[in-house]
TrEMBL record:
PANTHER family with a match to the protein in the record: DIGALACTOSYLDIACYLGLYCEROL SYNTHASE 1, CHLOROPLASTIC, DIGALACTOSYLDIACYLGLYCEROL SYNTHASE 2, CHLOROPLASTIC
Chief place of localization: plastid
Keywords of this entry: Chloroplast, Glycosyltransferase, Membrane, Plastid, Plastid outer membrane, Transferase, Transit peptide
Organism of provenance: Hibiscus syriacus
Name of protein: Digalactosyldiacylglycerol synthase 1, chloroplastic
Amino acid sequence: MEKGSSSTAFSFISKGWREVRDSADADLQLMKDRANSFKNLAATFDREIENLIQSAAPTFSVPAIRQSSEIDFMKKLQPKISEFRRVYSAPEISRKVMEKWGPRAKLGIDLSRIRSAIVAELDETDEEDMYGIMEFNKFRKSRSLGFKEEGSFGDWEPIRAFKTRLREFEKKKNSVEIFGGFKNSEFVEKVKSSLKAICKEPQESKEVPPLDVPELLAYLVRQSGPFLDQLGVRRDVCNKIVESLCSKRKNQLVLRSLAEGEPPTVDSDKINDELDLRIASVLQSTGHCYEGGFWTDFTKHDVSDGKRHVAIVTTASLPWMTGTAVNPLFRAAYLAKSEKQNVTLLVPWLCRSDQELVYPSSLTFSSPEEQENYMRNWVEERTGFKADFKISFYPGKFSKERRSIIPAGDTSQFISSKDADICILEEPEHLNWYHHGKRWTDKFNHVVGIVHTNYLEYIKREKNGALQAFLVKHINNWVSRAYCHKVLRLSAATQDLPKSVICNVHGVNPKFLKIGEKVAEERELGQQAFSKGAYFLGKMVWAKGYRELIDLLAKNKNDLEGFKLDVYGNGEDANEVQSTAKRLNLNLNFMKGRDHADDSLHRYKVFINPSVSDVLCTATAEALAMGKFVICADHPSNEFFRSFPNCLTYKTCEDFVAKVKEALTKEPQPLTPEQMYNLSWEAATQRFVEYSELDRVLNNEHDPAKVRPNGNIIAKSFSMSNLSEMLDGGLAFAHYCLTGNEFLRLCTGAIPGTRDYNKQHCKDLHLLPPQVENPIYGW
């Protein structure tokens, strides 16, 4: 029984030992498999490095710039490889790897005590069983020799191989041959494209959010500007409403400005542009394309010969020496001088009866050709060159009450359709008060209006002037908006019209600049250039500064004792002006009007112009060009002249007296070349081309596309319907209907019979009756 129990126990122990041995064999096999896997991984990495070096061998020549850039790329890659080798070759990494994949330090099981107990218990044991125990003991010893206890061990074979490979690559990477021949552009480009793909920012979503209610209201208010302006709502009020509705957009613009390092200021123009882009982007995302409205006419002039045509339409002509007759003539000459475009000057033709009322010295013309020759000789004598431009005539009638010429019939018909490209309306409000014909902006590609006269100032001086000025103000807004693309105001003294900017686009007769040069030469030689005192020159009507002049001299008679002023001028109020001066016992010497360039005026040193009704006094500019002192009121009409040192402005009566005494006791400063150029017609023409956007039109450039902050471009031209354009067309249509009624025309002050030209006009201009189509002018 005792022997059977011992055999049973030994069998149980032998069975347990076999299970332990099988488990240990399985663990050893798993470790070998993992070690081989890591060794294969290291070999694969080593092969990839070798392939990288071998693939960098040059197969063709690469430009030096490409080669240097690729070498820089590999140099940047070297520290990364060195860092990888340094980290993964450290003993700590090997220890951690072996702790995870290697057998534990005390994996072998010590069965010596069990064996001693069994041997002591059993005197005799089967040789087979003892052989098994001895084999197990050998296995335990072999396991103890293979690994050190407590987890410390030497470098494992795969780790040693990996370290060796990295050391070899570290030696090779410093060689110039590797990176000097690294010219495989295809490989480098793939690497670069991969890096760009990793670092690429997410693209902006193409979905455009819909418009919110404040944006819709802001756009409606801004596009309703013309209508609100007619109701008396000022433009700045509309801008404030739009700005308040677009407060969210304004905050975004401020943040963008701060991000770009710009001052955090956002003006109304930038807000309007952002609002336009917002509307356009929404409409563009829907595929909408605006093709014109109910009032829009796209049958305009098509430039086929490669040369543009400019038509200048004005309200007066020589020999009437008024600004609207002289300045458009100079403008036509200097625009034609460049020979970049064909130019036509369209001026009014008056019947003989009206010529006798308007033209000085009883000068009349029997035919348009005769008057055209007079105009050409006059401008060529003053400019010194022969300008190639066309002069045409349209029927006109002189209004004694308004002291101006009113067009008769449709003035736009006197520019043929083939020449209807660019139009310049000198005094657009005047030309269109009673215009009953084709809309200028429909016939021409680009229409520019130039405001010459401050009509509101003149009308306020008449009976019921306040009421008339109120009506004329809104009529001027009406016709300027309906018939012009752009309006230029010579100074801030004019009415603030829609689509308008302020810019002096007038120059002086070159003859006056030559006089100024002559005066400067005389002064350099020590000669006396000015031998006379002060003078005033202008049409003798109360509104041209005569009332202000008499008031100033009457109030300061004692302070200006002994001061004498020569006055040159003709006009309807001549007798009344002279009688008033005589009654007040003013020391004024009245003489007939004459050309400002007349030799008798060269020796005057001081020109006095107290007028506040002018928009931009031509005589003031001429006096400055001749090197004289100019004394004028501190008024917006004289803003352009303040930059000249010889311009003395005054605000009060006492200031006027001080300026007069200063001018009489001192000598004016000679003009610099820059100042003389600013007064010239060359500079004026350059300013006109810039501010009227004529340079863009002449160069066949379309409206500038708006660029969004992300670089996307959205053109506004026909991407959206424009409420402003629709309203302008409606205003033009309403104006056409009203001016077609003779009763309404007469109620508003029109000359009877001016809706169409009369028989005398047909005879003088060789026209057909207005009821018959005239093929010459393309009616």
